[in-house]
Amino acid sequence: MKKLLLILALLGSTLFVANADENKEAIKKSMQSMETSMAFIQKGFLYNHRGRIKKGITALRREVKNIDMFMIKNDKDLQFNAKEYAIAETKALDLMASRILEDFDKGNKEAVMIEFQQVLNRCVTCHALVRRW
Ligand code: HEC
Q1: pTM over 0.90
Q2: Best substitution site from 89, 126, 129, 132 to test ligand 1's pocket, by max atoms within 8 Å of Cβ?
Q3: How deeply is 131 buried, as exposed, middle or buried, from its count of CB atoms within 10 A (0-12, 13-18, 19+)?
Q4: Is 6 left (phi over 0), alpha (psi -120 to 50) or beta?
Q5: Using one digit for the tens of pLDDT, what is the confidence trace for 75-112?
Q6: Which is it for the CA torsion 103, 104, 109, 111, positive or negative?
Q7: How confident is the model at residue 26, as a pLDDT?
Q8: Comparing C-alpha atoms, which of 119, 33, 126, 24 is closest to residue 69?
Q9: CA 73 – CA 70 distance, rounded (Å)
Q10: How does pLDDT run across 10-69, given as a tens digit for each residue?
């Protein structure tokens, strides 16, 4: 019986490790996709190419929805509710991304630049929580 329990415990812990690794890979993939979208949007500004901006925004909004699926660890502040924070960030990023295209269409250049900057700030702020920078 003891042996069986030990085997089960070992099996459980390896499964847990596998899941954590999978989660890590999923985070990376999603994050890399968001980075590509941000670069795409920036290219759209520089080339004055609405199609690129739209494509980047659409991809970013799709991916941003995944942020709150991840367990984000933060050792610095035990009060920190990672899940809640991620959900709030998903909403804020989605809203801001949608505004970029609206303001671009209105020719509101300054607003577009501020919104893009705010999106980037939110990316970096979360990264500062999870890995300082
Ligand atoms: C709510 C938290 C959070 C937000 C918001 C966030 N990230 Fe991340 N990001 C993470 C975590 C967690 C990792 C993985 C841990 C690490 O790299 O240290 C990560 C890693 C990355 C990486 C490195 C991936 C790799 O292959 O190593 C890139 C690139 C990235 N994020 C881009 C972005 C962009 C672009 C945004 C904004 C549009 C963004 N992130 C917003 C939490 C976040």
Answers
A1: no
A2: 126
A3: exposed
A4: alpha
A5: 665 566 777 888 888 899 999 999 999 999 999 999 99
A6: positive
A7: 84
A8: 24
A9: 9
A10: 555 555 455 566 778 888 899 999 999 999 999 999 999 999 999 999 999 999 888 876
Residue 38 Cβ inside 6 Å of ligand 1? The answer reads yes
- The CA 24 to ligand 1 mean position distance, Å, reads 11
Residue 28 alpha carbon to ligand 1 centre in Å: 7
Find out whether the beta carbon of 59 lies less than 6 Å from any atom of ligand 1. no
| 77, two tokens | 């502040």
